[in-house]
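Researcher: Next sequence.
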Amino acid sequence: MARSVFYSFHYVPDNQRAAKVRSIGAVEGNKPANDNDWETIKKGGDAAIQRWIDGQMAGRSCAVVLVGANTAGRKWINYEILKAWNDEKGVVGIHIHNLTNLAGETTRKGSNPFSRVSARSRSMASVVKCYDPPYVTSPNVYSYIKDNIAGWIEEAIVIRKNN
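Model: Next structure:
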């Protein structure tokens, strides 16, 4: 049975890379807001964004943070990490910089977003794993993620239960 997860990512630069990961099918992911829906949600301000995230996270067992060049330190990424952790969901990161977008472009590697978030005075980077596929070509990175994502999610759930 596939786990139901919440995917967290920096939408504008990484949505095409995230779509590749979401298409793997090893896990069931949340449905992202399309551009028009997201603009409507944003018009409602921070409270509306928070409600949307909270609703999307409900019933999920893990948050998968897809780490692009500028993911770390973003307000809503940080919120999603802490929300998942505080709701006792697994949390795991996967670097996606070597996956291509529709134009065939990769990007630079982003920093670990968990190093900028703390829970109970402890850096999340000391507990949460952030995987960096050891390949530079997009097909190999995709295959590596496909082969490992289900196990990473299960491991993240166990880590959270033990912390």
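Model: Residues 4-161 form a domain with the Rossmann fold fold (CATH 3.40.50). The radius of gyration is 15 Å.
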